[in-house]
Write a structure and sequence with these properties.
- With 337 residues, the protein is of the alpha/beta class.
- The protein has two domains: 179 residues, no CATH class; 74 residues.
- It has eleven helices and six strands.
- Strands 1-2-3-4-6-5 form a six-stranded mixed β-sheet, with helices on both faces.
Length: 337
Amino acid sequence: MKEEKTPEALVEQADTQYTEDMALYINPMADIVVKYILGRKESTPLLLDLINAVQLDSGLEPLCSVELKNPFNLQRFKADKLSVIDIQAEDRQGRQFAVEIQVSAQVDFHHRSLYYWARLYSDQLKQREDYQTLKPVIAINLLDFDLFPKDTDVHHCYMLKNIKNHTDEVLTDHLVMHFIEKNKTLPRDVHPRLKAWIDYFNLEGLEDDMEILLKDDLVLAEAHQAYRCFTANDEARMLYNARWMGILDYNSRMVDARRKGLKEGMEEGIKEGIKEGIKEGIKEGIKEGIKEGIKEGIKEGIKEGKKEIAQNLKSIGVEPDTIARATGLSIDEIEAL
């Protein structure tokens, strides 16, 4: 008969595997670590517990079982560094569950998640199959940053609804998207199982608090044991470090690219600004020139009109003094006509 292990026994076993020379902190939210904890066949009960915690917190029915669609192993991970979805699973009804843990902050992550949902949904259809064969796809995203900073809710569940009738009528249950922001203060109405998982990911590295959390929780104790097994595996730690360095290098390249783009954009902006400034200056100069020209033209026109009148008056013998008073021209100007 197989011996039942208590949470305390699992933690103690994990502690013996976690020696002092392995004490380098490994982030449990890293994708490779999460895949190791939740994405192996032997850890399917842990994955089921997490999915059901999300389901129950949303008021949805829990699952009886799930089957992993992309079970994790270290060798496959080496050749699959660009994988998108961390964990894919399917329940007895054929519903697809995509679990992703995101560490790096991305303001457009909801768009990215929707895109990946669409890919999973559309990939279900094979040739000659109709739309009735499509099954729901449920995306679960556990975030290490605040995607909705103005909202105090920790767990956001999105479905397609009619916004005009203000009811809970759902167009289809084929699209369900969960976003769980683990760094926010947990409200009292969060389901205890989801709270336990969030606490676990937040407390890793705080051994005293972790011991209290795991004391009576067999599921999380097994998750903790898996985490410690990962940290005790030389190959796993090497892959973690390589993965983490790759992420840091990628982020560094993105920052450099943004800086370069900003610099080039400013330079181009200055050039375009000078061009536009010259162009606008010419336009304004022409406008002012035309305006001044019209004023001067009017003045000259009036003066020429006065000269013409003076010349006509002079030709009929009117005295220059009289002509000067009538036109405003000087005697010299009249004499010169």
